[in-house]
Structures are given as structure tokens and as C-alpha cells.
Amino acid sequence: xxxxxxxxxxxxxxxxxxxxxxxxxxxxxxxxxxxxxxxxxxxxxxxxxxxxxxxxxxxxxxxxxxxxxxxxxxxxxxxxxxxxxxxxxxxxxxxxxxxxxxxxxxxxxxxxxxxxxxxxxxxxxxxxxxxxxxxxxxxxxxxxxxxxxxxxxxxxxxxxxxxxxxxxxxxxxxxxxxxxxxxxxxxxxxxxxxxxxxxxxxxxxxxxxxxxxxxxxxxxxxxxxxxxxxxxxxxxxxxxxxxxxxxxxxxxxxxxxxxxxxxxxxxxxxxxxxxxxxxxxxxxxxxxxxxxxxxxxxxxxxxxxxxxxxxxxxxxxxxxxxx
Amino acid sequence: xxxxxxxxxxxxxxxxxxxxxxxxxxxxxxxxxxxxxxxxxxxxxxxxxxxxxxxxxxxxxxxxxxxxxxxxxxxxxxxxxxxxxxxxxxxxxxxxxxxxxxxxxxxxxxxxxxxxxxxxxxxxxxxxxxxxxxxxxxxxxxxxxxxxxxxxxxxxxxxxxxxxxxxxxxxxxxxxxxxxxxxxxxxxxxxxxxxxxxxxxxxxxxxxxxxxxxxxxxxxxxxxxxxxxxxxxxxxxxxxxxxxxxxxxxxxxxxxxxxxxxxxxxxxxxxxxxxxxxxxxxxxxxxxxxxxxxxxxxxxx
Lengths: 323, 301
Fold this sequence. Notes:
The complex is a heterodimer. Chain A is mainly α. Chain A has 2 domains: 20-78, no CATH class; 90-317, MetI-like fold (Orthogonal Bundle). Chain A is built from 16 helices and no strands. The two termini of chain A are 37 Å apart. Chain B is mainly alpha-helical. Chain B folds into 2 domains: 1-41; 70-300, MetI-like (MetI-like fold), CATH 1.10.3720. Chain B is built from 16 helices and no strands. Chain B has helices at 2-5, 7-12, 15-46, 50-54, 68-74, 77-109, 116-128, 133-142, 150-153, 160-173, 176-184, 189-197, 202-218, 221-226, 235-243, 254-300. In chain B, helix 3 (15-46) packs across helix 16 and helix 15 crosses helix 16 (254-300). The chains are: A mainly alpha, B mainly alpha. Chains A and B meet through helix 1, helix 2, helix 5, helix 6 and helix 7 of A and helix 3, helix 6, helix 7, helix 8 and helix 11 of B.
């Protein structure tokens, strides 16, 4: 059956190569239902992904909300909005805040899931590993609003941490009004929420390790730790590389959703990020949309450049790359 | 017990290995506690006496159990209206997103899709580059969606990541011989998709439905920027006001603040519980599907 199919499809392919125009048209007609199936997705992506890319043009204009993007009265200002950003007193603080929260988050958040996956994999009881993994994955499904709400309940002036501190005679400390506490709270809560979820991908890769490799290593007298180090870890190395490239691509791409929820007047000097600044300048107060769009574009260009650098570097030194 | 089952293995476990296993399990159990405790605390605090909570006495078990908070939240019409809105938005998002994502994923997985390369590039670009917040806002606004539920629903009905996950699933789990056989039998593309492919794809449909549902259930940002009418607010936006808005506006004298805190605090604990109950109840039953999704996604990478 398989063989017959093969012969048939080979025949079909041959015919296709030599197909005259009429047959190619028939082939197209035969496959046109696929075009219909893909059409809604093409439309949605066009509306919400490509039209905004076209909208970037306003970054090079003197644009007022309600203006048309291209019309006779469009005033082009070149790179003026970008120059404004580079001389904005907020420029360096924003760059620094965004970079620091990403890099510290990366240093803690990147290895943690790998270590957890290796540890879960080395657990003897497979049932227990399943149960623990289920628990580790759960916080991923808590919404950001609830997560930040929980942070305020634990670290607020009258939250659990302060209540315990006060009951043993300590001082109350307003974690949410202090700049110093913002980054640790932001990064640790993100890790609390996602370390288990991020580990899944490594756990899946680990389940593909050939058990015979382990058996052979045991016969050679390798300890369990040696086996983790020289069998398990190399086995997930390709996955680690891919995740590394993606993380580096996102190194300046921290979103506004969580930071906005955690911002207070007290911690603004470290919690104002490029993305939250774009939101504030572009959509609140007296909106300056052209300026905000320029800042956003600057940010996404940095991300694309970082991604390309990471990918090229990885390609040069190993076999692993995204493209 | 281990001796009877696997005597060889028991012999192999050296002292060093035993130490390794012990440390491993201890660290994992500590991590488990770190994950569970905050959730546990919210639960016990939600039905403990608010004064005991504020005094820092409630740490390991509930004290002076009271359900005042729960009866108070029944009176909060904004929360229940938010609940209703969120259910509506989530249901619409799931239905529409499946209608858009699954057929497109199937089409993309076919080698015979005309201009396949072009379509692939078309969908890959948005994964790495986008217009950003302001142009996105302007598009939604110029489509006339601001302050309608469609501003919340429509932008969420297609995630390119999910589309590629669906495509990978179809490529790896629908045998091509099956499709070829059906084609030879004269079935059209739509028939094949409807009566052969879909029945074999329950797993990916479940995964997609769950991903889109959780995404919409938990999101607040699009609703915050696009909806002005409070009666349209989804649950997360109502929660945001209850949970977070008050923290930065701390002022006034100690006593009144404490009194306000006393009242507001219990409501916070209760609203965290009430809003998370559906997801938490569903979670143990559906978690294997979520994990499956991550694995499908990782196949190609």
C-alpha cells in the first residue's frame, strides 16, 4: 500500500514538472480551498500586526491624534522625534532601568528552570516528580493583576511581612514606596510565577535521553551527579541554546503590563521602563503619539538587532540557531 | 522495599549518590513550599478575623474563622458584572480563535498550499517585529472598536505562536497517507478537513482553546486602554482597582488608615480567591494539555 502510494505520488510529481499551463491551473484550483482556510488568519494578522507596522510612519511626522497617516497635509520631520528622545532627561534612566531589570531577571531566571528540570528528572519517584511539577506549573495561570495584588498583600505596609516584622518588634517598611525594593520584588515574583512553566520544555527534552547511556555510565562507576553533568545537561544543550538566543532577543523587551501595576510615586525612578514610558507619553495625559511611537520603534529595533547578533554568534560557534 | 524490587540498584547507590538524592528531594520540597505557601496564606487569610491577619497572628492556620468577607463580596455588583463580562469575552475569544487558528494551521501544514513560503514569511515577521503600542492603539481606534467589547476580543483571536504550534501538530500527527487515500477516494479538501482531520485533532483543539481562554481570562491591559464604560470592564480590571489602586494613595493619620485597611484587606483576600477559583479548579484536570502544548511547540525548534 505504502509502496503503491509512493509510486503514485512520484508519478504525480513527474507530471507536475512537465505540467502545461492548464494543468497547473487545475492544480491551483484543487488547492485553493487551503487559501480560503488561511484567509481569516491572514486578515487578522494584517489588521492587528501589519497595519500597526504601517502606522510606525507617524514616528517621522508631526502627528496629531486624528490625523491621517498619509495625506497632503502630512508634515514630515525626519528623525526629529528620535533626536528628542536621545536628549530627553529620561533617556538614560529609562535605558538603565530597562536594561537592569532584564539582565538581572535573565541571570536569575534563565538558569533556574534548567536546574529545576535536571533536579526533577533526577528524582527517583516518577509519581512524585509529576506531582511536584504540577504544583510548580500552577502559578503560571495566576493573572498579573492577582500576582501584583498578592505582592501588595504580602509586602504592603500592613501586609504579612510587615505584620510579622512588627510583631517581633521590627520597623514597618513600605516596600512598594521604596525604589530599592522594586527590582527584587519584580524579578523574584516573576520567577516564582514562571520557573516551573519554563522548565517544561527542558523536562520534555530530558525525557528523550536514551536510558542506555545512563546504564553504561553506571557500569563505568559514574555517580548520579556525574551523570546529570555529562549525560543530561549535554542532552538539553541544543534547547538551552535556542532559549538563550530568544532571551537575548528579548533582553530590552520587558513589557509594560506588570511594571505598570507595580509602579508607585515612590519607586518611579527605577520602575519607569521604556515600555511604560511609551504608554504614558502616547496614551495618557496630553498624548504625544509621534514621540511615543518613535521611542517604541527605537526599542523594537534594539530587540531585532540583539536577536540577530545572538543568532549569528550562536550559528558561528555551534550548530544551533533559529534560522 | 527497594531491595526486593531491584537489588542491583540498591547495591549501586553509593554514599555519594544517597547524599545527592537526599539533597535533591529536600531542595525540591523547599521549592514546593515556596510555591504553595503564598497561595495557602491567601486562602486562610480570606476567612480569618481581619484583626488577627493585620496583627500578623495568622501565619500557619486560620484564626477566629469568619465568612464576613465572602458575604460582603456577594454585594459587590462590580465584581459579578466583571465576571459576566470576562466569561463573555473569553467564550467569544475561544470560539473565534479556534475558527481562525485551526483551519489556518491545517492549510499551513500542507505542502500543496499555493505560495506556502510567502505565507510562512508573512506569519513569521510579526513574531519578531511589530508596530508597537501606539500604532496598535490607532488601528483599533480607526476601526471604530474603542469602547466596544470587540476591542478586547478581536486583537486576541490570533496568536502567531499558537498558529505555528497548530501547524506543527498537524505535520507530526496526521499521517499523510490517510489524506492521500481520502483524496484518491475523491473527498474534497473541506470534507477531508472536516471529517478526517478535525476528529483526529481533539488534543490540539483542547490545547488551543485553553491557551486562548487563559490568555483572555487573565488580561487587563487592552481592556484598560480601550474601554471607558465601566459596565464593560472585565474581571481583571475590576480587581485591579480593588487590589492595587489603594496602595499608592496611602495618606492620613494612622488610625483611619488602619481602619480602612481592616475593611479593604479582607475584601482583597476574598477577591483573589473568588477570581482565581475557576482557573484553579480547572487546572489539575487540564494541566496535562497545557504541558502538551509546550511540547508540541518545542518539537520543531
